[in-house]
Design brief:
- The structure is a single chain.
- It is built from six helices and twelve strands.
- With about 220 residues, it is α+β, with helices and mostly antiparallel strands.
- The chain folds into two domains: about 120 residues, no CATH class; about 60 residues, OB fold (Dihydrolipoamide Acetyltransferase, E2P) (Beta Barrel).
- A five-stranded antiparallel β-sheet has the order 1-2-5-6-7, with helices on one face.
- About 15% of the residues are buried.
- The N terminus is likely disordered.
Length: about 220
């Protein structure tokens, strides 16, 4: 899954750095270049995976590829701009490290606890993350109510907050306990442009009684 532009040198199988270099030859997520900095030889890899899992249904989406620096003399890999270093043998868990680092910086930013070093990293990290998508994915469902006005291969709901919305079949099934014309409440998670991401905990509320005040708003019949 990692492809290199050059062939890493052979070495002892017990060395994790060399093991990493050998294993990258048969993979496609990385491309490699060699650079010299501060009199220390290191290799840079462009990590082409841009989605990292928080361990649940939420993904952290990056706008750009990560740059990894392999430091052979230290047996470490550094994620450029993220203030993150990990051992070469921990690289298979990179997703967890990236998500944890992001959440650490986010928490410190929200509580104004960023150090000077973290501030520079925070800017780079926030610029590289699709923060809007993260916010939507992490948003908790909110309780809403409406009236079911159609049910079949899909459902149609008139939300009390305003607007009629067609509900895709995979979510409409949760409304099978509601009669057409009946009010209900549910916990719904909305995405971009009001797209429904989840709908559950549906509670039928019965049909609304006729509101006499609504009739009073109609013009009177002229005699």
């Amino acid at each position: 899954m990692i492809a290199l532009t050059s062939t890493p040198p052979p070495a002892s199988s017990a060395d994790p750095v060399n093991k990493f270099q050998r294993e990258t030859a048969s993979r496609t997520e990385l491309s490699m270049g060699a650079h010299q900095s501060s009199n220390q030889l290191y290799q840079t890899y462009t990590f082409k995976q841009r989605y990292f899992s928080f361990g649940d249904d939420t993904l952290l989406k990056l706008k750009d590829n990560l740059e990894l620096k392999l430091l052979p003399t230290e047996g470490m890999v550094e994620v450029s701009g993220w203030g993150l270093k990990l051992r070469v043998e921990d690289l298979p868990n990179l997703s967890s490290y990236i998500c944890r680092r992001f959440l650490q910086v986010l928490r410190k930013a929200e509580t104004e606890e960023l150090s000077e070093q973290d501030q520079a990293c925070a800017v780079a990290i926030m610029d590289s993350v699709d923060f809007q998508q993260f916010t939507i994915d992490r948003a908790l469902p909110r309780k809403v109510s409406g009236i079911l006005i159609e049910y079949g291969t899909f459902a149609k709901v008139d939300w009390n907050s305003g607007g009629i919305q067609a509900i895709p079949h995979r979510f409409a099934q949760a409304l099978s306990v509601v009669d057409v014309g009946e009010s209900f409440s549910a916990f719904v998670r909305f995405g971009i442009d009001g797209e429904i991401l989840s709908l559950n905990s549906v509670m039928p509320l019965g049909k609304r009684p006729l509101d006499d005040s609504s009739w009073n708003a109609w013009p009177q019949k002229l005699s």
